[in-house]
């Protein structure tokens, strides 16, 4: 069974469920590791053939600043390694925070593990994967409802502008909540496709 939700039908109540802009943030992880690895490009043919990691990083933290010196992105992890034969990075306990330059609203991404392609175009989050924003009043004085996406697995594909999971997922925005056995979120089409047993609770709104 598949259920397709059109954001236009639900309007502004649900359209901010998924922070797709963070796909670009995740791409910064791999870009930074490539630029800062002292041994990555010196990997021997034996290392590439054996599949052994050719670069390691421990308890790393990256802070990205805008042209005014304000921080935009903070990325940290307990450990990261690169596998040349698979062209991927593996990160333990990834933690990412994105701050909007205008509204100062912060969005967080966390998981037990992450796996990212060398170009950062595809990122997989494993174990207690969460994308969330706390309820807050932004720098423009506008109230922002809390939202959250939670699953044991989330795949973020920048090329296709998609977030997908084949495992149970829960989505919350303010007092609204939806759950499903599988999910595909398509940014370009503006659609959220929920499959399997789909349940939802939409809180009444005051006029």
> What characterizes the major β-sheet?
6 strands, antiparallel, barrel
The number of helical elements comes to 3
| DSSP summary, beta strand count | 17
Proportion of residues in extended strands: over 45%
Oligomer state equals single chain
Low-pLDDT windows of residues? 5-16
Structure notes:
This protein has a single domain, classed as Sandwich (lipopolysaccharide transport protein A fold). Helices cover 12% and strands 50% of the residues. A hairpin with a 4-residue loop joins strand 11 and strand 12 (162-165). Strands 3-4-7-8-6-5 form a 6-stranded antiparallel beta barrel. A two-stranded antiparallel sheet has the order 9-10. The chain has 207 residues and is mostly beta strands.
Spell out the key features of this protein:
mainly beta, 17 strands, lipopolysaccharide transport protein A fold, two-stranded antiparallel ribbon, 207 residues, 12% helix, six-stranded antiparallel barrel, 3 helices
Give a concise summary.
With 207 residues, the chain is mainly beta. Helix content is 12%, strand content 50%. The protein has three helices and 17 strands.
Task: Write the topology of this structure.
Elements lengths: L1 E5 H4 L11 H15 L8 H6 L4 E11 L5 E13 L4 E5 L2 E5 L6 E5 L2 E5 L4 E12 L2 E2 L5 E2 L2 E11 L4 E4 L3 E5 L2 E5 L1 E5 L4 E5 L3 E3 L6
Antiparallel strand pairs: 1-16, 2-3, 3-4, 3-5, 4-7, 5-6, 6-8, 7-8, 8-11, 9-10, 11-12, 11-13, 12-15, 13-14, 14-17, 15-16
């Amino acid at each position: 069974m598949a259920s397709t939700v059109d954001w236009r039908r639900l309007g502004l109540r649900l359209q901010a469920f998924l922070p797709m802009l963070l796909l670009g943030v995740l791409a910064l992880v791999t870009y930074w590791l490539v630029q800062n690895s002292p041994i990555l490009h010196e990997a021997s043919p034996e290392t590439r053939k054996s599949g052994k990691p050719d670069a390691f990083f421990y308890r790393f933290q990256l802070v990205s600043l805008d042209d005014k010196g304000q921080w935009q992105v903070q990325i940290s992890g307990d450990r990261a390694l690169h596998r040349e034969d698979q062209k991927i990075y593996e990160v333990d306990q990834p933690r990412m925070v994105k701050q909007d330059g205008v509204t100062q609203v912060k969005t967080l991404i966390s998981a037990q593990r992450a796996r990212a392609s060398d170009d950062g175009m595809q990122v997989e989050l494993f174990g207690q994967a969460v994308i969330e924003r706390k309820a807050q009043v932004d720098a423009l004085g506008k109230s922002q409802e809390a939202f959250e996406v939670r699953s044991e697995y989330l795949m973020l594909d920048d090329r296709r502008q998609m977030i997908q999971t084949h495992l149970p997922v829960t989505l919350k925005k303010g007092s609204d909540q939806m759950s499903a056995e599988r999910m595909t979120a398509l940014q370009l089409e503006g659609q959220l496709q929920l499959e399997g047993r789909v349940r939802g609770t939409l809180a009444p709104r005051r006029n």
